[in-house]
Amino acid sequence: MSNVDSSTSPLIDIEDVNNIEEPMDHDHDNDSDNDNDHGNVNDNESVEVEGNPFQKKGRKKTSKVWNEMKEVVLPDGTKKVECTWCKTKFAIHSTGVTTQLKRHLDRCMRRKIALGGTKQKILSIESTGSDSAINVSSFTYDHAKVREVASHMILYHEYPFMHMEHVIFNKFMKTATPHWQKISRTTAKNDCVTTYEIHKKKLKLLLKNINRISITTDLWKSGQKIQYMVVTAHFVDKDWKLQKRVLNFCNVPPPHSGVIIADALHKCFIDWGIENKVSTITVDNAKYNDTCLRILKDSFALKKKLPLDGKIFHVRCCAHIVNLLVQDGLGEIGDIVDGIREGVKYLAASEARLNQFSEITKQLELPSKRLILDCPTRWNSTYMMLSTALEFKAVIPRYQERDLGFVYVPSLEDWVKVENVCQVLAIFNEWMRNDYIRAMALKMKKKFDKYWGECNLLMAIGAVLDPRCKMMVIEFCFPEIYHSEAEANKNIAMVREALYELYYEYVSVHTSVNSEGISQLKTRETCSSSIIPNEKFIVTGRSKFESFVRKADTIQPMKSDLDIYLEESVYICNEGVSSHFDALEWWKINNLKYRILSKMACDILSIPITSVASESTFSAGGRVIDPYRASLSTETVQMLLCGADWIRAFYGLKKGSEAEETSFKEIWLP
């Protein structure tokens, strides 16, 4: 048997998606790096006999052992026979006897592991929890399955492909199992590509059975100076669980106009076969997104009917709106914020300064041990910086007495303003207490009103479909939000009208589906009776009843699902359980009672009102495209980031806290 194979061959046929749980093909790494896996042989120990054309030829070897054995010459000139599997060497018998070699091949562990159908089974002893309870079972080392899971590990943990060649990692694996075979970086990359293709096919099959999909998308410039676009799909699965999947992390060449981005998104939707399933797209408030969404909305309107005629198609990211309006508000005390920020930078620039600052903190017996430097574009990190600075307001003037170069000392009046602003940002309902707070609030409200538009309608409908709220939350909040009672009533009526308009769209779809079912049933009955013309088609009582149910289901009752839902009282959770309430679970339990309305609730409640889900992928992108891997191709970057997301979903895992980036820098005092 030849020992030549392809170490970089795919683990399994990516077309055979249904068999992805089966062990993968038993390929062996044939890279030069992997020669040491078989007995730790290097170039100084043995050299293959190349053969001399002028040398007298010996007797032809006929034994099959020579398919798996070869002659080598050691550095001292001695000839030996070497097993191609484990690199064990044997003396060459003068008579040419091969019995010893045959015996070795029969018990060679590496040969048994590598050959399909002759795997070595090992007793595995597993404890079941108690000292006396032990399970003994046979264990088969499957290197192909190891390669598969290794690709999952690389994708999930964002490891470099080189990780599989690390010396101590391989020593660890060799200690864990003596049958471990080293995996080269090339094999690891190809295995990750295979895993990516497998799970892409699985995701396409999953999306094929989803009726409506919501999209979030955003642009990001990497350290490679390449602009990437992330596209994330949000939907509810058959088990009524909210799901999200990263579909694309692709390069979008400049210029980044609305037309270019619209084309890139449309291409993505066609590739995934969801161009007729996209119901909403959530984006930030960049100007090019307005153009992009207008183009897509017009394009989709020609092919299909968008929910509410596209009134909720364009969803503006609420997190981005809040950030913009708070940044406008913070402009009222911009000088104070800049002074505190520069002061933190000044202290963080020197360990000696931090030591001195820490000493004063200890003398005043203050509990806080950290300063925070914000990211100026993130209002929440600015709030964290200001609120933390308040804890050191007694330390800062004392530090200035020791360091005359420190000029960033707010006045008492400034500290009062900072404290009031922090209360506004923390609570968001004490806007009108002072003149500068009033000015701040007016700026924030102006920005808020600018972007409220369509988001108002979507969020209002979503709130009504929360059984704890229904229309009562609208009737309670709108008089507080709007200036006059007439304006509040007008907007309440608008929400109710939109709610019923959307509901009757779902009724229309439900009726047409049932009518189609009745038509198909009649066609089958006609075909069945025509097969045997001389015999009367037998209609059972059960089939009559099913036909009656289908017909009755198309007749609209006096009260609709929506009428009944709104007339019933709101759902009141047990005390302390409200924060853990799952609205989708409630609709799942009540879907037989509200057969049409539950489908509508399922689709609406799966719409994200922020683009945070897509933006969080950029944090992973920053780790994957680090300075050491800046030369990764755009295709490899997409494979790594999308594959990582799909593997997390495959195992039911979420990003660990260590994978999440904060929007501020903590500076710990000595």
From TrEMBL:
Principal localisation: nucleus
GO cellular component assignments: nucleus
Composition bias, Basic and acidic residues: 23-40
Compartment(s): Nucleus
Comp. bias (Polar residues): 1-10
Keyword terms: DNA-binding, Metal-binding, Nucleus, Transcription, Transcription regulation, Zinc, Zinc-finger
The UniProt record lists the keyword tRNA processing: no
Record field: compositional bias (Acidic residues): 13-22
Transmembrane keyword on record: no
Transmembrane segment boundaries: none
Boundaries of every BED-type domain copy: 60-107
Domain of life where this protein originates: Eukaryota
One Pfam match: hAT-like_RNase-H
An annotated Gene Ontology molecular function: zinc ion binding
Region listing for Disordered, in residue ranges: 1-62
Description of how the protein assembles with itself and partners: Homodimer.
Record's protein name: BED-type domain-containing protein
Lineage: Eukaryota, Viridiplantae, Streptophyta, Embryophyta, Tracheophyta
